[in-house]
Design a protein that fits this description.
The structure holds 2 protein chains of 2 kinds.
Chain A (H helix, E strand, L loop, with lengths): L4 E3 L2 E4 L5 E6 L6 E7 L6 E7 L2 E5 L6 E5 L5 E5 L8 E8 L9 E2 L3 E5 L1
Parallel strand pairs in A: 2-11
Antiparallel strand pairs in A: 1-3, 3-8, 4-5, 4-9, 5-6, 7-8, 9-10, 9-11
Chain B lengths: L3 E4 L2 E5 L4 E7 L4 E9 L6 E7 L4 E4 L2 E6 L4 E6 L8 E9 L5 E4 L3 E6 L1
Parallel strand pairs in B: 2-11
Antiparallel strand pairs in B: 1-3, 3-8, 4-5, 4-9, 6-7, 7-8, 9-10, 9-11
The chains are: A mainly beta, B mainly beta.
């Protein structure tokens, strides 16, 4: 198992609400990426944070936002939840140095939007 | 943007057979290609990866090959075992400071005892 943890493990929200998901990176890692994995699909890249700054973003609307803290833990915030936001949300930490991109995933947070 | 196609979507083999999963990518700037195994209800786990300056990499029963010219890479599993049954994902990472990873849709591998 990796040292990446996520909370909560499961969450149920209703349409229009806001949600905050949390990720604690593996020790020594300075980069965190967030992914959305719908049932039966591959992970879709949301964004990446490197040293508290956004370092890349996938094709997700602005209501998906994030933060990375000085201790390299991270949050994913989703506003105005839609039914299609129901998915497994994964974070992955890595050490971005030179060409080191190896990512280690957390166990995920399963979000259900009703 | 990058587009990663993964085939087949489902692969059924007998224990002891070999399994091959193929991925193609579109962006020649992609330079890092990991493979992940995801068991039901669990996190994706890195099983092997390859960088664009290498053509082949092996780790016991698992190997990955990369053809940069044709923009495709493949996962090879030999002597398959029932515990290899899982969903396998390929990914292509475009580097250069800020990188955007693109994952394939996954291959469900079933190894029959």
């Amino acid at each position: 198992e990796t040292g990446v943890t996520q909370s909560p493990t499961h969450l149920i929200k209703t349409r229009g609400q806001q949600v905050t998901l949390r990720c604690s990176s593996q020790s020594g890692h300075n980069t965190v990426s967030w992914y959305q994995q719908a049932l039966g699909q591959g992970p879709q890249f949301i964004f990446q944070y490197y040293r508290e700054e956004e370092n890349g973003r996938g094709n997700f609307p602005p209501r998906f936002s994030g933060l990375q803290f000085p201790n390299y833990s991270s949050e994913l915030n989703v506003n105005a939840l839609e039914l299609d936001d129901s998915a497994l949300y994964l974070c992955a930490s890595s050490l971005l140095r030179g060409n080191q991109e190896t990512q280690y995933f957390g166990p995920g947070t399963r979000l259900l939007v009703l | 943007g990058e587009n990663v196609e993964q085939h087949p979507s489902t692969l059924s083999v007998q224990e002891g057979d070999s399994a091959v999963i193929k991925c193609t990518y579109s962006d020649s700037a992609s330079n890092y290609f990991p493979w992940y195994k995801q068991e039901l209800g669990k996190r994706p786990q890195l099983i092997i990866d390859i960088r664009s300056n290498v053509g082949e990499k092996k780790d016991q029963r698992i190997a990955v090959t990369l053809n940069k010219t044709a923009k495709h890479f493949s996962l090879h599993i030999t002597e398959t075992q029932p515990e290899d049954s899982a969903v396998y994902f390929c990914a292509a990472f475009k580097g250069g400071g800020s990188y955007i990873p693109t994952f394939g849709r996954g291959t469900s591998l079933i190894v029959h005892p």
